[in-house]
Amino acid sequence: MNFSILKDDYRTKKADCLILGINSNYKPSAADSFPEEIKKIIKQAFDEKTFTGEFKSVRHFTISERPYFCSSILLVGLGDSNEQISSVRYKKMIDAVYQQIKMQAYSSITILLDGFIQNRSCSSCIKSFVGELSFQNYRYTEYKSKPETPYNPDIAFATVEDDAEEALAYSTVLKDAIDEARDLQHTPGNVGNSVYFAGKAKELENKYSSVSVKILGRSELKQEKMSAYLAVCSGSSNPPQMCIINYRGAGEQVAPVAIVGKGLTFDSGGLSLKPASGMDEMKYDKCGACVVIALMDAIARLGLKINVVGVAAFAENMPDADSYRPGDLITARNGLNIEVANTDAEGRMVLCDAISYTVDTYNPEIILDLATLTGGCIVALGHIATGLIANDDNLAKELIAAGEKSNDKVWRLPLDEEYQELIDSKLADITNSAGREASPVTAGAFLSRFTGNIPWAHLDIAGTAWNSNGYKHPTGRPLALLLEYVVSKAGK
To answer: Which is the catalytic residue, given 348, 409, 449, 477?
Structure first.
């Protein structure tokens, strides 16, 4: 989809379709700015009750007395003009618009944006339309021998608001980054191994002068004493690759924001083997690290005045004679001894060493991690909100605010002292699995042991990173949340 801003009179641009937002209590009058032939259609639709302005209703009309600037109009119901439309309902309204424009196969569309603002800003409307239309229109066709012809209309937002161009520029970068993340996440395990993704990370170094990339392979991880990380991939023929993407947009002395992503290119569960049903989805256990790569691309593209270190920790968890075992005792990079209770609790094993390395090497201002970590988070929050655990109240509030603004929600879970006791081990310092009870929280408690004194937040995206119903697909979450957060930190 190609988006643009139209600040001239919308009648100066020819389009297949003109999209209008109409309220249920709309009263057509001579004062309306619409051309006579369009006012006539709206009035007749209300009189005949073929369109009532009911929220999310959509009605297509072909114009018989055709004006020169459009051949059809799409009326979109916004409900009562005094009603506040939530972000969730606004999204559903845009979904209804997408279904109609795709069915009608318009090649050029003009959206009269002012009619859709209703208790929100022009900038917010543009971000919502670009984000949701693009999300619905996305298709992964890399392995389709005969892919469907992509739907690629030209869509112009007609508005005179001053912040429209900036909002569209940001929305385009975000849309492209989410598409990039979803492409990476879709990549199957037989192609997308750790070396493949390390190559994708290295591309950013060639693309932007503000970015440098360092890759730590098996020997470098061993030198850094990352025994927990290495244990996870000990049964795989594919070597681990920890990709460190360093973006410098501020002064050298400015402490960076650090973002660490779990990147299990395939997670069989290791010797604690997962059931066969749904195991094909375990190629999505790399979603966190894929988001980190796409996020760093977006940050560099925007040229934000901030320093950010993105760490994409890739590995593969497979059963083999060399695999780590339940009952093993492993010393992590920071010296803590871990009792392995479950080899399928592998994400925290990779992340604990990656977080420890990042804290010691870069001394960040704050550190975030994101991971498809626990099925328990899906039980607790479903597929709606990402689980948030933090050791700093201000950081948690900032992430919650960024989630609300980007419509990429998080919900804070506790990190009380009692939960720390659940991961105590009688044989070592901590166990990598405390069982099913409070599993998202005990996983967070485990990771908190490796963050030092740095303000830290953990995002459990197990329920939000991909959808299993019908057509299985990754969502790119929480990229919108993280970009919103980094932009606010940069002061943009």
So the answer is: 348
Joined tokens for residue 315: 């590995």
DSSP 8-state code for residue 60: E
CATH superfamily label, 2-159: Leucine Aminopeptidase, subunit E, domain 1 (3.40.220.10)
What is the residue-wise DSSP string for 202-258? HHHHHH-TTEEEEEE-HHHHHHTT-HHHHHHTTT-SSPPEEEEEEEE-S-TTSPPEE
301 catalytically annotated: no
Q: How many CB atoms lie within 10 A of CB 31?
A: 6
φ, ψ of residue 187 to 5 degrees: the values are -55, 125
Q: Where are the domains of the chain?
A: 2-159, 174-490
Quote the CA–CA distance of 104 and 149 in Å, as a whole number.
15
Does the annotation mark 274 as catalytic? yes
Give the whole-angstrom CA distance, residue 104 versus residue 101.
Answer: 5
Q: What is the pLDDT along the chain (492 residues), one digit of tens a residue?
A: 999 999 988 888 889 999 999 988 877 655 467 777 888 888 888 888 999 899 999 999 887 665 567 889 999 999 988 788 888 999 999 999 999 999 999 999 999 998 898 788 899 999 999 999 999 999 999 998 988 888 999 999 999 888 999 999 999 999 999 999 999 999 999 999 999 999 999 999 999 999 999 999 999 999 999 999 999 999 999 999 999 999 999 988 899 999 999 999 999 999 999 999 889 999 999 999 999 999 999 999 999 999 999 999 999 999 999 999 999 999 999 999 999 999 999 999 999 999 999 999 999 999 999 999 999 999 999 999 999 999 999 999 999 999 999 999 999 999 999 999 999 999 999 999 999 999 999 999 999 999 999 999 999 999 999 987 767 899 999 999 999 999 999 986
pTM above 0.85, yes or no: yes
Q: How far apart are CA 54 and CA 25, in angstroms?
A: 9
d(CA 289, CA 394): 25
Burial 409-446 (b: 16+ CB within 10 A, else e): bbebbebeeebbebbebeebbbbbbbeeebbbbbbbbb
Domain 174-490 in the same topology as domain 2-159: no
The backbone region for 295, taken as left when phi is positive above 0, alpha when psi lies in -120 to 50, beta otherwise, is: alpha
Topology classification of domain 174-490: Aminopeptidase (3.40.630)
Q: Which of 56, 225, 274, 412 is catalytic?
A: 274
